[in-house]
Each structure stands twice: as C-alpha cells, then as structure tokens.
Write a structure and sequence with these properties.
The protein has ten helices and eight strands. It has about 350 residues and is of the alpha+beta class.
Length: about 350
C-alpha cells in the first residue's frame, strides 16, 4: 500500500510520511504549474478521496512530467492561519522546519507517494498466528490475511494488539510445554551462516540497498505493467549477484555493514516475492494497480501463496478466499455514504 504523501528531501528523510491529517485539515494538492489536479481524479471529494486514489493521482502527475524539481507534487496548507496549523499539525510544522527549514504556514511542501504498508506477508494460522515452522509465531505487518487488498487507516495498530496477544499467548504455551528450549545445532548453524558473511569484497551493502529501493519504486510501484515487473526480476538478479560480494570486516564499523547486508538479503527475498506476485495477479484490485489489466477480475478472487522449493526457487499456489460469514453481511450492506461527506477517507 502506498501513502499519497511522503517527504522527498533530505535523503535521510526520503519516504517519511506527511500525515494525511494535512489533507484532512484542508491541504490542497497542486502540480508544479499550480493546477489543483484532484479535480480530474475525484471532483467530489478532491483531496479527501481515498488513500489509494490520491496516491494514484499524485503518481500519475509526477510520471507524466507535471511534478516539481525533486520529483514530487505540492501539498499546500498555507491558506490556513498559522495558529491553526500549529494547533492541528504541530508535528508536521516542526518536521519541515527541522529537516528542510521550510515554514509550511508560508510555503507548500513537495511530496510524493511512498511505500507504506505490506498487506501480504507470512502465512499464519488464524487463531494462534503460528507459522509452518514449528515454534515460530508472527504478528503485525509481517503477516498476511488481515487487511485484504487495501488496508484501512488505523487497522494496523489494532492488528498488533489483537494478534500480537494471540501470538504471544500461543508462543508462551508452546514454550512451557517443551522440555528443551534451545537447539545447540541450530545456534551453531546460525553462527556459521553469520561468520560466512564476514569477508572482504568489492561491493558495499548500503548502495545495493539503495539500488533495491529504486528498483522496486520504478518496477513495482504505484502502477505496474508486465514489462516493468519482468525487467525488475532481471535487475533483482544482478543485485543478488552483487550482494554475494559485499565487503564486511571484523571491526567496529564492519558489524554495521553486516546488519545492512542481512537487511539487504531479506529485502531481496521480499522483493522477489512481491514482483512475482504482482506478475501473477493480472488484474487491478485494491492497492494493486496493473495498467495492462485495469479491471478487477472475479476469477482472481484468490490468495496467492508463495514458497521456496527444494532448489530455492519460488513456486506460487492459489487458495480460494473464504466466504464472508453471514453475521458480517449486514455490515457490508449498510449505506454509509451519507456519513462520509466532508471527511477524509482512509
């Protein structure tokens, strides 16, 4: 899922969220030429439209060359009194002063969509959040199945509270039932794997992390097409090859490099799963936009489950989406449109 508005500069803050409360309080989106472009995407709700629609709109404006000098569009709240901004948006005001020396009560913010939340993830058992790996439980954003195709704002916090507790209780129960709590062989294997990463090489992890980030934005971003996704897989293979030659020294600085390398290797795995899943889902559904398959396909009301086979290659299986229980149907049939007038949709 892509958040419509993230910071672009400075480099270390790129992707940091500019809260949707800015739009909720009356923020307006403009192109570099000063056009309020949401009139072309949702003339009724304008900037109060849904997160995915605003993200798609801002992405399209940037992609078609109507963005600013840093590759973004402009979010303007300066028409409000400064006292109102300081009362309603104090954190945003300080954030731009601190990192850009920009007074948002006087000047617009340059923003762009940013990757915000993964709605896919590790497959877990519904009640306990146990994984297929015995003794391993997972909860939160790393898991799949809670948010469907387009997470609603605020639901991720609730998810951690509900399923975090379930996973914790189940893990504690399993631990108490075990006579042996630690596998010496598993610890030794993990140590050997870490030690194998400490070696001299010609590559650095940080630039490769940046390459991976740029690849996913360009090839698997807000709008996706078959050719980009396939090119992304080819580029990913090149980064993986380079990652095998990352320089990690046994020094104080080297352990930081090791941490970046481990993060890079995990990112490569998730990136490949994302690219292959996006290729397989030949439709547009929720936050997944395929320009070459712009419509929702009822035949693809399926979950895509990926796993590594014995050779380490991904294989994709499909599972049907369970029917909505009868007790929840009335919630879907309620007319809530009248309650949403003038409110920010997340």
């Amino acid at each position: 899922q892509f958040h419509p508005t993230g910071m672009l500069t400075p480099e270390e803050m790129a992707g940091t969220l500019v809260t949707e409360a800015v739009r909720g309080e009356g923020g307006r989106l403009f192109t570099a030429a000063g056009e309020r472009f949401m009139t072309r995407y949702d003339p009724q709700r304008m900037e109060l439209s849904t997160r995915d629609r605003v993200a798609l709109a801002t992405y399209t404006e940037i992609k078609e060359g109507r963005g600013g000098p840093n590759g973004g569009v402009f979010l303007d709240i300066s028409h409000l009194p400064k006292a109102t901004i300081l009362e309603k948006l104090p954190r945003m005001y300080r954030q731009f002063i601190e990192y850009q020396m920009l007074d948002i009560s006087k000047s617009p913010m340059e923003v762009a969509p940013t990757a915000h939340y993964s709605m896919g993830g590790i497959v877990v058992e519904q009640q306990t959040h146990a994984t297929e790996l015995k003794g391993l439980f997972a909860a939160g954003e790393c898991t799949a199945g809670v948010h469907g195709a387009n997470r609603l704002g605020g639901n991720s916090l609730v998810e951690t509270q509900v399923f975090g507790r379930r996973a914790g209780e189940a893990a504690a129960k399993v631990s108490q039932q075990r006579e042996r709590h630690r596998s010496r062989e598993a610890v030794d294997q993990a140590v050997r794997e870490l030690e194998a990463q400490v070696k001299e090489g010609s590559e650095l992890a940080r630039p490769l992390q940046r390459r991976l980030r740029d690849l996913m934005w360009e090839r698997c971003g807000v709008v996706r097409v078959d050719s980009d996704l396939r090119a992304g897989l080819d580029e990913l293979a090149a980064i993986r090859e380079a990652a095998a030659d990352v320089d990690v020294r046994p020094s104080a600085e080297g352990w930081g490099d090791l941490a970046h390398l481990l993060d890079l290797n995990a990112g490569l795995l998730v990136a490949e799963a994302s690219l292959r899943g996006a290729l397989e889902r030949r439709e547009t559904r929720g936050a997944h936009n395929r320009a070459d398959f712009p419509s929702l396909d009822p035949e693809l009301t399926l979950n895509l489950v990926q796993r590594l086979d014995a050779t380490g290659k991904f294989e994709i299986q499909t599972r049907p989406v369970p029917a909505i229980p009868d007790r929840l149907q009335p919630w879907l049939e309620r007319d809530v449109a009248s309650q949403l007038v003038g409110r920010l949709l997340e």
